[in-house]
């Protein structure tokens, strides 16, 4: 059946409508403006940061001089960011996937507790990042860390668990990115044909077996998308880690869960506001921003591609 | 999959529980000191490979808070500890913290390089930063509104300036607060009507002015000679505070090394000034 | 958060033996493992609710003394000489030194004498000021102007680190609102126009790469946007508009707007796309142009979703930290001039928290601000949620 909205505008039997032309143009310009600003930001950062990036920059530490453009390196920051993000996925993926499974497979969509859970998930997505920082400080470091210290180290003078550490920063970020994982997993679970589940049940499998062996493997691309998106989001956040574990300078790498860590985003913030010689640090600053941007962008693009492939695959199987 | 996650968690927990904190020295506090502290840490760790030193900034207030919360061993500070903070430390570890002077600093006042003003008296600085003087023409420059840049209130530099130059009065409410000296310099360098203060630093477009004690005194530049002799009116000590119970062993050695002539040599590279010889320790 | 998937959700029948889900009773055999697994999964899924509740609890708990008016930040203290310590009773000594029961029990004679001496220092540092004995954490000082020493007239002042601690929150509220206002004014028309273009006017081939391209803006971390605003945008905008303060609410607001464009765009676009195509087709069949159909038919139909998008954008903008910390100048003044520097609630918390001592009045004031912020975003999220829910029900009713 022909879709009238597909017919090119010029074949319509109608006079030239100035208002439509103008307003369509305005919306097109608005879209172009947004894309233009995005392009300007990316180009500006790449232009200034490209010279600063070299293999040495990425794989060396800050042994010599953080502010000397010939000697600075960002390896500790890359390691710190990666470590906290990977630690975060250990917490967020199981909880997020199980919650999504509950919402899609087990829960009654119109009951009040489902609505409350959904509401809580949506709310969590909108909490300001600094409030997460306060939460991490007050709950994880103060309460959980304090209780752990009281239990395991009652005689110690210094807090062992009750201070800023990579473990608490990761758990705070896990709470923050939980909605991302839940929504992405739910999307992929809902896209699975109901027929698949019905077939499995008809063959005698229990609900648990169906979910674990039939539904989940099909949903893996969506879970992957959710994981990648949550990593991308968490890698760029600075406000939640300000008081929960980011350090300005450390000699080694975080090896224990109670260690602090260096971080790309935090380093960008420090370099922009703290360096003694602005002109000298500018190339390092731009290069660090470029590394951070490459990290988050690559992850985002990978997630989008995986999601697009998944959607095309689903469309074909229907 | 679930088993894998469980075993990772168990291993991580065990690793954390089994680990001790021996060997790591944490230093936290002043942003003015943070680069110096990092340099000290680098050089010291190169010579003593078993010691690990961790440095974080955040402002002198942060260092004192961490000292009281026992989340740091050393508190770097660009101002002296307040009595209230001392009391909190006593509550926390039953003794008053030991104070070590570690370097000298001349607090510079920066203006835009294109600004014609060369020198200001302390009274004029007081007026500008409290908002009583609002136009450059009142202090000998071209007419134009003065834009004041200040530091965040966690900064020891902020408190020192407030206490010594403003004599305890509040900063001008319209003063823009910047998170670090670099931000102040950057802002002043780009703003022809700007004025700001900070520790020693360099930035294109900004220059440090000479300071006069009063209208009749000579204008003094913040150079090493003037700061050590005390001629430059806005000078201060930079401090490190520590819990006396911890001041022994590795930590004690580190603190002694910082104040020795070896440690003080590094101070100059960062832009601050070494302690007068009378306060330095001889190196081991 | 797409609710286009409403189509995929089938309503369960009342009978738990429906074909779709056979429940726990398969055949006649009861399976305890199944029951356990289902309950376990349900418990884990409550974690989201638990987290929201815990955030309220732990952030609010630190702020409770301020809300209840139990903190005292006055600085004048009566002085007792150390050599008179012996003449004080235990309770008086404990009250004078402001120690809790545990702390007092752990102190020996030497430490107590030391504390008395340091108290003398504290008294010496206390200013001689008419406001020295005022409890500045009382609500009337938080909200109303007061004439402090050294000022010409009553003003709202936020200067916590000072001899007299000044905690008026009005400049911070105004700062947050200014920046958010600029962000919304900049981002909403832009995103809405782009959403209309992408969902109604562009051809499907263009749509395929255009939508992800705009959502790429969400991949830029806020610290990078703040850095860009500080270094590049501030200079450019100052040249174009010619105002005095290089870093102000306007610059921060524009950068904030860039941060919320992806949020407003994707939700508005979802809302516009889920309006049934039959509406558009009917309008076109009657001779309207694509624009007329979009503006007069689709947009009004999607209005609740668009409104929800704006509300969520507002929540995101008011809660953003790094951009305003770096680009807004952070001066706490009471002024509605957009080109003046402004200090937001989020930047205040981020900049000042590290220097507070656990439990003192500055610390609790910052947690109070955090609670306030959380309450505002909670309410706006709830509102957006209810609107989207109602929209979903309307769509299902009509389909």
Question: Any overview of this molecule?
Answer:
- The complex is a heterotrimer of chains A (318), B (284) and C (399).
- Chain A has 318 residues and is an all-alpha fold.
- Chain A has two domains: 20-49; 55-317, Orthogonal Bundle (MetI-like fold).
- In chain A, 70% of the residues lie in helices and 1% in strands.
- In chain A, helix 3 crosses helix 6 (166-190) and helix 5 crosses helix 6 (166-190).
- Chain B is of the alpha/beta class and 284 residues long.
- Chain B folds into two domains: 2-105 and 238-279, 3-Layer(aba) Sandwich (D-Maltodextrin-Binding Protein, domain 2); 108-221, 3-Layer(aba) Sandwich (D-Maltodextrin-Binding Protein, domain 2).
- Chain B is built from ten helices and twelve strands.
- In chain B, helix 2 packs across helix 10 (261-270) and helix 3 (60-69) runs parallel beside helix 4 (83-93).
- The longest helix of chain B is centred in the first third of the chain and has 17 residues, at 2-18.
- Chain C has 399 residues and is mostly helical.
- Among the domains of chain C are: 77-125, no CATH class; 170-355, MetI-like (MetI-like fold), CATH 1.10.3720.10.
- Chain C has helices at residues 32-45, 47-67, 90-96, 101-105, 109-125, 139-143, 170-201, 204-215, 222-241, 249-273, 277-285, 290-319, 322-327, 345-352, 361-398, and strands spanning 158-159, 166-167.
- In chain C, strand 1 (158-159) and strand 2 (166-167) form a beta hairpin.
- The longest helix of chain C has 38 residues, at 361-398.
- The two termini of chain C are 20 Å apart.
- Classes of the chains: A mainly alpha (318), B alpha/beta (284), C mainly alpha (399).
- Chains in contact: A-B, A-C, B-C.
- Chain A binds chain B through residues 63, 66-67, 90, 94, 152, 157-161, 163-164, 167, 246-252, 256-258, 260, 270, 272-279, 281, and chain B through 2, 5, 8-9, 12-13, 15-17, 19, 21, 31, 34-35, 38, 41-42, 45, 52-57, 69-71, 93, 178-183, 185-186, 189, 200-204, 245, 270-271.
- Strand 1 of chain A pairs antiparallel with strand 2 of chain B.
